[in-house]
Every structure is written in structure tokens, then in C-alpha cells.
Amino acid sequence: MGLLGGFLGGYLGQLAGASSAPTSSGTPGGSAGTVTGFCDAATVAARVLPAIVTINVVSSAGGGVGTGSIIRDDGYILTNNHVISDAANGATIIVTFSNGQQVPATLIGRSPQADIAVVKVDIGSKLPAVAIGDSDMLAVGQPVVALGAPLGLSSTVTAGIVSALGRDVPVASDDGGAALLAGAIQTDAAINPGNSGGALVDCNGAQIGVNSAIATVPNSAGQAGGGSVGIGFAVPVNLAMSLANQLIDTGKVSYPYFGMQVVAIPQDVAEKFNTEPGLFVEGVTPGGPAEKAGIQAGDIITALDGQSATDVAALTRIKLTKKPGDTVEVSYLRGTEKGTATVTLGEAP
Asked: For the chain: N or C, fewer Cβ within 10 A?
């Protein structure tokens, strides 16, 4: 079994001193083209590489290298939060274009929960921007190309396929909480530390994901090893762009909330108490969305929007993929009675 190798972009080298890479919490569109075979990687590279940048984050304590993609010709760049998180504490961001030009960048905003961030450069002229695809149209087996700066090697191109879709990959967050790559795209295109924040694109060169994490094989000490074993994960571009647009417009992301506190009931515990696995509702916020919908403390939530809810990541996924005002169908168990409720999500304070 592989362990999630954690965040990739933290090829945290010795730019100005020692630092350590963050690790994961687990042991983890216009998408045209045939579903079999491989992309013409040379054509894709020529089309996309001008819109791919290497991101260096430098501070007195050290630094790191990651990747970003230019998503607007006025200088907005999409990347992972873990690539630039030190900039929130005063570190300097330097962007290197494919032609070698280096310019400083400004942090626009970030979502630690989804591991997405936006930075911006100003050079007084239009920049080549990547085309944005539709990650909802992907198919397993579809050929893809990954572009980035693995181990700091800028303008690196690898090819593979979409290995799986809809993976929820928990990873550590720099704010001390948990982040989730919600509905992640799994690919066997080689991704390594430094690729984080780079583009996963289809055969037309349209970005369909943000390369973010890998699974690795434990070493002899039982710790996660480094390097690609053909299991990488990318944030779907539809989700990434939804968050990026909010960051560009307001500098922050508006998350929805249920207004309830839950804890997961594992399968073995459920069997011991002769109940179903799910999310045990410890409490509800008075006047909050869950209470208004009829959810009560003591209920066991078994499904959210028709998907089984066996861990807290199910709630996190709703938080990242829904908006305030959206509705969520909740299936629950109250004692021995089953019920459903429709929760209209509120806006988190």
C-alpha cells in the first residue's frame, strides 16, 4: 500500500537555509481527444509551456520551489497554497517564466482548505495564458500531460493517463487544520516534488487539473518515500477556478456551512453498537442551517447528496464544492428510523 507523499510543491531546498517539506495526513473540459493512446506531448508542450512558471518562495528561514500556471493574460497565476504559504508570513515570491525572465509576485489570496492559491505579476504587457478545460468531462483512461518544475527543473513535461476520478485525498494544511483535494484526478503522469501547482492538461493543451500531491511507497523506516510511483493527484480545474475567481475578486473564499458538529463512526464501532457507519451529530448550531432543516443532535448522517458519508472529509468536500445558498440532501438515522432532510447551506462567518 502506498502512503500519500504529501504536498509536492514543497521541494523545499536550501535556498537560504534549511526547511522541511509539509507532509500529508494520510498514506495519502474541453477535454477533447481519444480516451486511449497518448497525447502528442511535443505539440502540447509547445502550446502550454509559455504559460507555465516556476515559483520560488524565499525567506530568511529557507525557501521552496513549486509551479504555477498563468490563468489570465494580466498576470494572475494559479498554484497550490502549500507552494506559497510562507509568503503569508512575509516570504518573497519570485516567478520565473519559461524564457528565464524573473519577476517578483504578489500573493492575492489562498484557500488552505483546498490547497489552492493565486499570485500575480505585473510586467506591463500581456502574458500567455493557459486555456481552461472542463474537468467534469474527463474520462478514465484519457491521455493527459503534466507540466511543471520537479526538483526545481523548470519546463519539465511528462505524459500519462487519467487513472481514476473523484478521489478525496486528505492532506495536511499549513494552518494546522486539514486540507482536502476534493474529487481529485488521479494520474500516472510522473509528478514529483516541485510539480505542485503546475498544470495537468488534455491533448488540446487545456488545463484540467492542478497537480498537488502524490502517493509514495514507505521506506524501510516506515516513512513516506519520495518520488513518483505513478500515483499523482490533481485538483479538478473546475473547482480550482471557482476558488481562484473568488480569490481574484475578493481576496478570500466564501465557504458554506451546515452549522453542526460531527464525528465519524467507523465500521467496527458501528457493528459494536448495532448501528450504521456514518457521521454522528454531536451538536447543532441554534438557528443554523442544519437545525432549520430538522437535523438533531444524536442523529447519524449516512449520506450527503446521495454519496455515503463515512468520514468528515464528506463534509469538507461539500464545503469546497458548494456555495452558500445551495441545498444538500441529507440522509440520516435517528434511533431506528431513517429520514431525509434538505439543508440550505449558510455562509460561514
From this structure: C
Q: What domains lie within the chain, and their CATH numbers?
A: 3-250 (2.40.10.120), 256-347 (2.30.42.10)
Q: Grid coordinates 447519524 are at which residue? A: 300
The letter for the amino acid at 143 is P
Q: Which of 84, 95, 147 is nearest to 121 (CA)?
A: 95
Q: Which of 19, 69, 115, 212 is catalytic?
A: 115
82 is catalytic: yes
CA–CA distance, 109 with 97 (Å, rounded to integer) = 21
Q: Which of 19, 196, 212, 228 is catalytic?
A: 196
Which regions of the chain are under pLDDT 50?
1-35
Using CA atoms, how far residue 293 sits from 199, 286, 307, in Å, is 40, 12, 19
Q: Is 308 a catalytic residue?
A: no
Contact between 263 and 136 under an 8 Å Cβ cutoff? The reply is no
Calpha distance 115→129 (Å, rounded): 21
Does the annotation mark 268 as catalytic? no
Q: Is the separation of the CB atoms in 233 and 184 below 8 Å?
A: yes
pLDDT of residue 224: 58
Distance CA 125, CA 246 (A): 24
